[in-house]
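Lab notebook: predicted structure, single chain.

Context: the supervisor wants predicted structures on file for every construct in the current expression panel, including those that have not yet been purified. This is the next one on the list. No modifications to the sequence; it matches the entry in the shared construct table.
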Amino acid sequence: MELSGCGTALVTPFLDNGDVDEIAFRNHVRWQVESGIDFLVPTGSTGEACSLTEEEWLRVVRLVIDASEGRVPVFVGCSHNTSRQAIARVRKLQAIPGVTGVLTANPYYNKPTQEGQYQHFRAIAEDTHLQVLIYNIPGRTGVNLLPETTARLAEIPNIVGIKESSGNLQQITEVVHSVPQRFHVFAGDDNLALPILSVGGAGVISVAANAIPAEMSQMTTAALENDWVLARQLYRKYYRLIVANFAEPNPQPIKCVLAMMGRIQEVYRLPMLPVLPPTRAHLEKLAEELGLLAHTHAAGNLRMA
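Prediction complete. Output recorded below exactly as produced.
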């Protein structure tokens, strides 16, 4: 399977009582697919995976597969700081028809060496038939996967790519230049999506796509097709929103925007909280200027359908 383009790092909507809002979630997934998103990534950082019970995690995965109806690949966030537990979680995903692969992050808290990270990802990949996307996110895990280690991992057949969220464009460029063509490098930060695409990246796994799926997909496709005029126009238009999504810890801002759009309720699980008033005002101003609030009433009706 050729994996490229724009994937959405899905939020997990909650009800006022704290339960997963299954109706809003199904509608959100369908909207994403119908808007042209290339693949879906549930239960990652944006999906508040650390706040889900294992039962909820598996339920969310099944909801995504059911609502997407096999129209796009589904890569499930599945990370743990011990290799044994990560492998056990991946095995549970193998039993769910429709799961394409897993997105698995550096082992957090343990702070392993480069060799430790290599052996961790290798052990996961060699235990499963699923495709594996590595997730390098040192800001959350405390360790950085270096390009030379990524290149070694790219030799393992079912490790098909990496979501690079180091924020270091030089490092990501080195990764792109050191891996085989079959291995795909995805931007993990929306604000670096276009620069990474320009040096040979395969796409982006996007937070902003939760609110602007068609636009992020169009921008990514334009870049991949070398229509840089259109890609830059879209990037410029939505850049302020892309940056504002990280004014506070993700997914607080993007869930705030989606609630303004009427697509979800603005409910979080501790330690996530509603955004501060200045952030809310800024997000509302941007959403209004970009026309995202024009169909709020209709979207609200859809969420309750």
